[in-house]
TrEMBL record:
InterPro entries in the cross-refs: Rpr2/Snm1/Rpp21
Pfam families xref list: Rpr2 (PF04032)
Ranges annotated as spanning the membrane: none
GO terms for MF: metal ion binding
Keyword tRNA processing belongs to the record: yes
Keywords: Metal-binding, tRNA processing, Zinc
Protein name according to UniProt: Rpr2-domain-containing protein
Family: Belongs to the eukaryotic/archaeal RNase P protein component 4 family.
Annotated GO CC locations: nucleolar ribonuclease P complex
Gene Ontology biological process: tRNA processing
Keyword Coiled coil: no
Region (Disordered): 46-67, 140-171
Length: 171
């Protein structure tokens, strides 16, 4: 018996996709963790932080985020996707600062605001999400998805078609 061709198959480059997924998860995890003076790691946003994470003693260990390791993993994630020519999803790209490669977590490492610079803020399709990175201070702007109304030329074409439909129904 000969082997039959498998149709449908799986995902091509599955190992690369899993590597990118791992790098993203690890970078996000490390950016939420804090390291005390030794090698002890405590959760920053998981449960209640320890006393040393909240208020370090003057002579005791200080709590610092693991930003360096997180940024390195985010840099590796970006380089792997560029080298293998795999497109990252917009949510993944927006979760990493383009300038300093730090993982953006709302309230911890970035601040998000919605701006509308239209006259009086009347145009809902002009809303823009502005994310400011706390590490490098740079801002990125992303359009908030709101449907724009049709242009006047497009409205005129659809109005003409609708009026022809009405005339056909009447006559």
């Amino acid at each position: 018996m000969a082997k039959g061709n498998k149709t449908g198959g799986g995902v091509q480059n599955k190992a690369i996709y899993s590597r990118i997924s791992f790098l993203q998860q690890a970078a996000t995890f490390l950016s939420t963790q804090r390291q005390t003076h030794g090698s002890h790691v405590t959760g920053a946003s998981i449960g209640a932080p320890s006393d040393s994470a909240r208020l370090p003693a003057p002579d005791g260990p200080t709590s610092v985020p693991l930003q360096g390791m997180s940024r390195r993993l985010a840099t590796d994630l970006r380089s792997v996707s560029l080298k293998t020519r795999i497109r990252l999803k917009p949510a993944v790209k927006q979760a990493i600062c383009k300038f300093c490669d730090s993982v953006l977590i709302e309230g911890e490492s970035c601040t998000s605001t919605v701006e509308n610079k239209s006259k009086g803020g009347n145009k809902p399709w002009a809303d823009v999400l502005v994310r400011a990175c706390h590490t490098c201070g740079r801002e990125r702007r992303y359009p908030v998805s709101a449907s724009r109304p049709k242009r006047k030329t497009e409205r005129a074409v659809s109005d003409d078609a609708a009026s022809l439909q009405r005339k056909k129904l009447k006559g």
